[in-house]
Write a structure and sequence with these properties.
2 copies of one chain form a homodimer. Chain A has a domain of 137 residues: Hotdog Thioesterase (Thiol Ester Dehydrase, Chain A, Roll). In chain A, 29% of the residues lie in helices and 27% in strands. In chain A, strand 5 and strand 6 form a beta hairpin. The two termini of chain A are 15 Å apart. Chains A and B meet through helix 5, helix 6 and strand 4 of A and helix 6 and strand 4 of B. Chains A, B: Pfam families: 4HBT. Chains A, B: GO terms for molecular function: hydrolase activity. Chains A, B: InterPro entries: HotDog_dom_sf (IPR029069), THEM4/THEM5_acyl-CoA_thioest (IPR052365), Thioestr_dom (IPR006683).
């Protein structure tokens, strides 16, 4: 829903830094943080292959990495975005919150909360000219709905993430205001699907997007969706 | 998305058994399974309080359990629905599937895959006369989107579960064909919300439902949604 997590911000800043021709240090916020803070751990980028990735997922990943070589596509890094990383960006939220400290200390990004291979394995690529994101997604065994198939909520989650990122890169920090999903066919558990999102139009401050979820060979249309994203003015 | 998991079937059968005045053994499929199979473990019902439940959630739970006393409301049990429970109901799916056995052996219901308190803590109640489900939901720290708030996908997941169950009890095994969600305000992590779903109309084989997500005091409308559910004819 909200695209304004630390990880998304970090991704956006990294992309902007690259485009503006910043120095290697300045364009890498993780590196900068390491130099100028007492924090010693570099957050792990989860949008990279691990042993749980199937052959299909690795093959698609390699194909898109090839597309990245001429700069038309970019791979978006992805982090767990724990609360304990103390993002100053959301200070206003925390001040209003009545959450128990103990619970918050365990907080982590929904889509990155599983061990490798069990939950959401994915990587998102972005094409700036086409205003398009492509998410390569392998849904693990902990995302089951009907036995053998992905839960509809897990599909909705990845659609939300892909659509949201497609608006967040050109539009900054946004919130999903509407998500309208047509589920056409159930997705087999542990299979790979390709989620394709397109920015269709911008009206004032509203971003309108569309999205499809297809099999790797593109022959099966599993789901299609539309999304509306709004800038988060309270931040 | 698909409401046809083992857990849902077990719930439906348990409810039908009660209504038809079956014997204690016949109306408890878990007990029957234990008597007539080599399987010795009784699946745990997760739709019951555990130490992670907040005061708000426990209070609401107690209020609804009180409503259950006159039979107008019923608490729906909820299980992990592991593949290893060998549900015969979905044999057709498994025969067509090319999934790796090792992965399937780890499969579990998306909404019950977390340790107590970390993910989806919820219980669904059903009112047959009003054709209505109410889900009491506490979203744990592993469901984070923007720091301090629930991920939109986690909200979509619980809306899907609540709407789907509202159609599944009168309609049998159903699949969510459409889910249209308006996200109005972000939901604080670890807070409790009440998801209210209503069966609005039935047209032929289609079930049309509406849904709201509100704060415990009902003052804040976090999200509203509509859903369309279809019977799963292939089973």
């Amino acid at each position: 829903m909200l695209r304004s997590c630390t990880a998304a911000l970090r991704t956006l800043r990294a992309l902007r830094g690259r485009r503006e021709g910043a120095s290697p240090a300045a364009r890498d916020p993780v590196l900068v943080r390491r130099w100028f803070s007492t924090e010693k751990v570099i957050p792990k980028d989860y949008a990279l292959p691990n042993p749980s990735w199937s052959k299909d997922l690795r093959l698609l990943f390699d194909q898109f990495m090839k597309k990245c070589e001429d700069g038309s596509w970019e791979r978006l890094p992805s982090y767990k975005s724990k609360y304990t990383q103390k993002s100053e960006d959301f200070k206003t939220y925390f001040l209003d919150s009545k959450l128990v400290k103990e619970q918050l200390s365990q907080a982590q990004l929904f889509t990155r909360g599983y061990e490798d291979g069990l939950g959401f394995e994915y990587v998102i690529f972005y094409n700036d000219d086409e205003k398009r994101t492509v998410c390569l997604f392998q849904g693990g065994p902990y995302l089951q709905g009907v036995p053998g198939f992905l839960h509809g909520g897990a599909i909705a989650t990845m659609i939300d993430a892909t659509v949201g990122m497609c608006a967040a890169i050109p539009g900054g920090i946004v919130m999903t205001a509407n998500l309208n999903i047509n589920f056409k066919r159930p997705i087999p558990l542990c299979s790979v699907v390709v989620i394709n999102s397109q920015l269709d139009k911008i009206e004032g401050r509203k971003f309108f997007l569309s999205c499809t979820v297809r099999s790797v060979d593109e022959k099966i249309l599993y789901s299609e969706a539309t999304g509306k994203e709004l800038p988060l003015s309270i931040l």
